[in-house]
Amino acid sequence: MGTKLDLSQVLEELENTSTLDELSDVAVRLRDSLRVEHLIYHWVDGAGDQYGYTTYPDAWVQRYLERSYHRIDPVIVGCFQRFHPVDWKKLDWSSKPAKAFLKDAQSHGVGNQGYSIPIRGPNGQFALFTVNHSCDDSTWQDFVESHGRSLILIAHYFNRKGLEFASDRQPGSPRGLSPREVDAMTLLALGYSRAQVAHSLSISEHTLRVYIEGARAKLGAQNTTHAIATALSRGLIVV
Q1: Torsions phi, psi for 141 (to 5 deg)
Q2: Could you tell me the domains of the chain?
Q3: Angstrom distance (rounded) from CA 26 to CA 22
Q4: What are the b/e assignments for 105-128, b being 16+ CB within 10 Å?
Q5: Which residues form the HTH luxR-type domain (predicted)?
Q6: If 0-12 CB within 10 Å is exposed, 13-18 middle and 19+ buried, where does residue 138 land?
Q7: What is the distance between the alpha carbons of residues 153 and 178, in angstroms, rounded to a whole number?
Q8: pLDDT per residue over 89-143, tens digit each?
Protein backbone atom coordinates (compact mmCIF):
# COMPACT_ATOMS: atom_id res chain seq x y z
CA MET A 1 0.00 0.00 0.00
CA GLY A 2 1.02 3.63 -0.27
CA THR A 3 1.75 3.55 -4.00
CA LYS A 4 1.38 6.77 -5.98
CA LEU A 5 -1.73 6.61 -8.15
CA ASP A 6 -1.80 8.08 -11.66
CA LEU A 7 -5.33 9.52 -11.47
CA SER A 8 -5.36 10.84 -15.05
CA GLN A 9 -4.48 7.42 -16.42
CA VAL A 10 -7.14 5.67 -14.36
CA LEU A 11 -9.84 8.10 -15.48
CA GLU A 12 -8.77 7.78 -19.10
CA GLU A 13 -8.92 3.98 -18.91
CA LEU A 14 -12.40 4.14 -17.39
CA GLU A 15 -13.56 6.62 -20.02
CA ASN A 16 -12.37 4.32 -22.79
CA THR A 17 -14.17 1.19 -21.59
CA SER A 18 -17.01 -0.03 -23.78
CA THR A 19 -17.88 -3.43 -22.26
CA LEU A 20 -18.32 -4.92 -18.81
CA ASP A 21 -15.25 -7.10 -19.36
CA GLU A 22 -13.15 -4.01 -20.04
CA LEU A 23 -14.55 -2.32 -16.94
CA SER A 24 -13.68 -5.41 -14.91
CA ASP A 25 -10.13 -5.35 -16.28
CA VAL A 26 -9.73 -1.71 -15.21
CA ALA A 27 -11.07 -2.58 -11.76
CA VAL A 28 -8.48 -5.34 -11.33
CA ARG A 29 -5.65 -3.08 -12.48
CA LEU A 30 -6.86 -0.35 -10.13
CA ARG A 31 -7.00 -2.80 -7.23
CA ASP A 32 -3.45 -3.90 -7.99
CA SER A 33 -2.22 -0.31 -8.39
CA LEU A 34 -3.71 0.64 -5.03
CA ARG A 35 -2.31 -2.56 -3.50
CA VAL A 36 -5.58 -3.37 -1.79
CA GLU A 37 -7.15 -6.81 -1.64
CA HIS A 38 -10.58 -6.03 -3.04
CA LEU A 39 -12.48 -3.40 -5.02
CA ILE A 40 -16.27 -3.36 -5.22
CA TYR A 41 -18.95 -1.45 -7.11
CA HIS A 42 -22.35 -2.39 -5.66
CA TRP A 43 -25.81 -1.16 -6.60
CA VAL A 44 -28.96 -2.35 -4.82
CA ASP A 45 -32.10 -1.07 -6.51
CA GLY A 46 -35.49 -0.35 -4.96
CA ALA A 47 -36.74 -3.86 -5.75
CA GLY A 48 -33.82 -5.45 -3.92
CA ASP A 49 -32.08 -6.60 -7.10
CA GLN A 50 -28.32 -6.25 -7.10
CA TYR A 51 -25.84 -5.25 -9.75
CA GLY A 52 -22.15 -4.58 -9.72
CA TYR A 53 -18.59 -5.80 -9.90
CA THR A 54 -16.37 -7.19 -7.16
CA THR A 55 -13.02 -8.88 -6.69
CA TYR A 56 -14.37 -10.75 -3.66
CA PRO A 57 -14.19 -14.57 -3.88
CA ASP A 58 -17.09 -16.10 -5.82
CA ALA A 59 -18.07 -18.17 -2.76
CA TRP A 60 -18.63 -14.99 -0.72
CA VAL A 61 -20.58 -13.27 -3.51
CA GLN A 62 -22.87 -16.30 -3.83
CA ARG A 63 -23.36 -16.52 -0.07
CA TYR A 64 -24.07 -12.78 0.16
CA LEU A 65 -26.78 -13.07 -2.50
CA GLU A 66 -28.32 -16.27 -1.16
CA ARG A 67 -28.63 -14.89 2.35
CA SER A 68 -29.80 -11.44 1.20
CA TYR A 69 -27.08 -9.90 3.31
CA HIS A 70 -27.69 -6.51 1.74
CA ARG A 71 -30.65 -6.17 4.12
CA ILE A 72 -28.41 -6.27 7.23
CA ASP A 73 -24.99 -5.28 5.87
CA PRO A 74 -23.86 -2.36 8.10
CA VAL A 75 -21.92 -0.92 5.15
CA ILE A 76 -25.03 -0.59 2.99
CA VAL A 77 -27.30 0.42 5.86
CA GLY A 78 -24.80 2.96 7.19
CA CYS A 79 -23.83 4.45 3.84
CA PHE A 80 -27.45 4.84 2.78
CA GLN A 81 -27.82 7.24 5.71
CA ARG A 82 -24.74 9.26 4.72
CA PHE A 83 -23.53 11.43 1.86
CA HIS A 84 -19.81 11.31 2.59
CA PRO A 85 -17.26 8.48 2.30
CA VAL A 86 -17.28 6.14 5.28
CA ASP A 87 -14.54 4.19 7.01
CA TRP A 88 -16.03 0.85 8.08
CA LYS A 89 -14.69 1.21 11.61
CA LYS A 90 -17.07 4.15 12.11
CA LEU A 91 -20.16 2.07 11.30
CA ASP A 92 -22.36 0.28 13.82
CA TRP A 93 -21.35 -3.39 14.09
CA SER A 94 -22.80 -3.88 17.58
CA SER A 95 -25.92 -5.93 16.79
CA LYS A 96 -25.85 -9.74 16.80
CA PRO A 97 -26.77 -9.98 13.09
CA ALA A 98 -24.01 -7.49 12.19
CA LYS A 99 -21.42 -9.37 14.25
CA ALA A 100 -22.44 -12.68 12.67
CA PHE A 101 -22.32 -11.11 9.22
CA LEU A 102 -18.82 -9.70 9.84
CA LYS A 103 -17.54 -13.05 11.10
CA ASP A 104 -18.95 -14.79 8.04
CA ALA A 105 -17.48 -12.15 5.70
CA GLN A 106 -13.98 -12.40 7.17
CA SER A 107 -14.10 -16.20 7.04
CA HIS A 108 -14.68 -15.81 3.29
CA GLY A 109 -11.68 -13.53 2.70
CA VAL A 110 -13.13 -10.06 3.31
CA GLY A 111 -10.53 -7.77 4.92
CA ASN A 112 -10.90 -6.04 8.26
CA GLN A 113 -10.58 -2.55 6.74
CA GLY A 114 -12.95 -0.86 4.31
CA TYR A 115 -13.64 2.54 2.79
CA SER A 116 -16.98 3.00 1.02
CA ILE A 117 -18.18 5.93 -1.07
CA PRO A 118 -21.97 6.42 -1.34
CA ILE A 119 -23.04 7.51 -4.81
CA ARG A 120 -26.35 9.26 -5.38
CA GLY A 121 -27.40 10.02 -8.92
CA PRO A 122 -30.52 11.45 -10.57
CA ASN A 123 -33.95 10.22 -9.51
CA GLY A 124 -32.80 8.43 -6.38
CA GLN A 125 -30.07 6.21 -7.80
CA PHE A 126 -27.86 4.81 -5.03
CA ALA A 127 -24.66 2.79 -5.27
CA LEU A 128 -21.47 2.10 -3.35
CA PHE A 129 -17.85 2.07 -4.42
CA THR A 130 -15.60 0.29 -1.91
CA VAL A 131 -11.98 -0.66 -1.37
CA ASN A 132 -11.20 -3.39 1.16
CA HIS A 133 -7.98 -4.64 2.73
CA SER A 134 -6.41 -6.44 5.70
CA CYS A 135 -4.01 -4.27 7.69
CA ASP A 136 -3.67 -2.33 10.92
CA ASP A 137 -5.59 0.88 11.60
CA SER A 138 -2.59 3.18 11.21
CA THR A 139 -1.65 1.79 7.78
CA TRP A 140 -5.25 2.08 6.63
CA GLN A 141 -5.56 5.67 7.84
CA ASP A 142 -2.45 6.61 5.86
CA PHE A 143 -3.93 4.95 2.77
CA VAL A 144 -7.24 6.80 3.07
CA GLU A 145 -5.51 10.13 3.62
CA SER A 146 -3.36 9.56 0.53
CA HIS A 147 -6.06 8.32 -1.84
CA GLY A 148 -9.44 9.39 -0.43
CA ARG A 149 -10.02 12.31 -2.79
CA SER A 150 -8.95 10.38 -5.87
CA LEU A 151 -11.22 7.49 -4.95
CA ILE A 152 -14.25 9.80 -4.89
CA LEU A 153 -13.66 10.88 -8.48
CA ILE A 154 -12.89 7.31 -9.57
CA ALA A 155 -16.13 6.17 -7.93
CA HIS A 156 -18.04 8.76 -9.93
CA TYR A 157 -16.48 7.55 -13.20
CA PHE A 158 -17.08 3.91 -12.27
CA ASN A 159 -20.73 4.60 -11.55
CA ARG A 160 -21.21 6.41 -14.83
CA LYS A 161 -19.82 3.44 -16.73
CA GLY A 162 -21.83 1.00 -14.64
CA LEU A 163 -25.00 2.83 -15.60
CA GLU A 164 -24.05 2.78 -19.27
CA PHE A 165 -23.56 -0.99 -19.17
CA ALA A 166 -26.81 -1.57 -17.30
CA SER A 167 -29.09 0.65 -19.37
CA ASP A 168 -32.19 -1.32 -18.40
CA ARG A 169 -31.61 -0.23 -14.80
CA GLN A 170 -30.56 3.32 -15.48
CA PRO A 171 -32.91 5.95 -14.04
CA GLY A 172 -34.27 8.54 -16.38
CA SER A 173 -31.93 11.50 -16.70
CA PRO A 174 -33.37 14.97 -17.02
CA ARG A 175 -31.19 17.49 -18.80
CA GLY A 176 -28.31 18.27 -16.53
CA LEU A 177 -24.58 18.71 -16.54
CA SER A 178 -22.34 17.07 -19.10
CA PRO A 179 -19.89 14.41 -17.85
CA ARG A 180 -16.96 16.83 -18.05
CA GLU A 181 -18.95 19.55 -16.26
CA VAL A 182 -19.72 17.05 -13.49
CA ASP A 183 -16.02 16.13 -13.24
CA ALA A 184 -14.97 19.77 -12.99
CA MET A 185 -17.60 20.70 -10.41
CA THR A 186 -16.87 17.59 -8.33
CA LEU A 187 -13.18 18.40 -8.05
CA LEU A 188 -13.89 22.06 -7.26
CA ALA A 189 -16.32 20.94 -4.55
CA LEU A 190 -13.55 18.78 -3.09
CA GLY A 191 -11.38 21.87 -2.68
CA TYR A 192 -9.09 21.49 -5.70
CA SER A 193 -7.77 24.73 -7.19
CA ARG A 194 -8.55 25.45 -10.84
CA ALA A 195 -4.99 24.59 -11.78
CA GLN A 196 -5.26 21.25 -9.95
CA VAL A 197 -8.60 20.48 -11.61
CA ALA A 198 -7.23 21.22 -15.06
CA HIS A 199 -4.19 19.02 -14.37
CA SER A 200 -6.33 16.15 -13.02
CA LEU A 201 -8.59 16.23 -16.08
CA SER A 202 -5.69 16.76 -18.51
CA ILE A 203 -7.24 19.93 -19.96
CA SER A 204 -6.19 23.57 -20.16
CA GLU A 205 -7.47 26.12 -17.67
CA HIS A 206 -9.21 27.86 -20.58
CA THR A 207 -11.17 24.66 -21.35
CA LEU A 208 -11.91 24.27 -17.65
CA ARG A 209 -13.44 27.78 -17.61
CA VAL A 210 -15.73 26.72 -20.46
CA TYR A 211 -16.98 23.74 -18.43
CA ILE A 212 -17.46 25.84 -15.30
CA GLU A 213 -19.36 28.56 -17.14
CA GLY A 214 -21.49 25.93 -18.89
CA ALA A 215 -22.40 24.36 -15.57
CA ARG A 216 -23.09 27.73 -14.00
CA ALA A 217 -25.44 28.69 -16.84
CA LYS A 218 -27.36 25.39 -16.72
CA LEU A 219 -27.79 25.67 -12.96
CA GLY A 220 -28.81 29.33 -13.04
CA ALA A 221 -26.03 30.11 -10.58
CA GLN A 222 -24.63 33.56 -9.90
CA ASN A 223 -21.07 32.34 -9.45
CA THR A 224 -19.00 29.17 -9.15
CA THR A 225 -19.65 28.73 -5.43
CA HIS A 226 -23.38 29.00 -6.02
CA ALA A 227 -23.12 26.50 -8.89
CA ILE A 228 -21.32 23.96 -6.69
CA ALA A 229 -23.90 24.33 -3.92
CA THR A 230 -26.76 23.93 -6.39
CA ALA A 231 -25.20 20.86 -8.02
CA LEU A 232 -24.70 19.25 -4.60
CA SER A 233 -28.26 19.99 -3.49
CA ARG A 234 -29.67 18.45 -6.68
CA GLY A 235 -27.54 15.33 -6.39
CA LEU A 236 -25.72 16.10 -9.64
CA ILE A 237 -22.34 15.73 -7.96
CA VAL A 238 -21.26 13.70 -4.92
CA VAL A 239 -18.46 14.62 -2.50
Answers
A1: -60, -40
A2: 7-164 (3.30.450.80), 179-233 (1.10.10.10)
A3: 6
A4: beebebbbbbbbbbbbbeeebbbb
A5: 170-235
A6: exposed
A7: 15
A8: 999 999 999 999 999 999 999 999 999 999 876 555 678 999 999 999 999 999 9
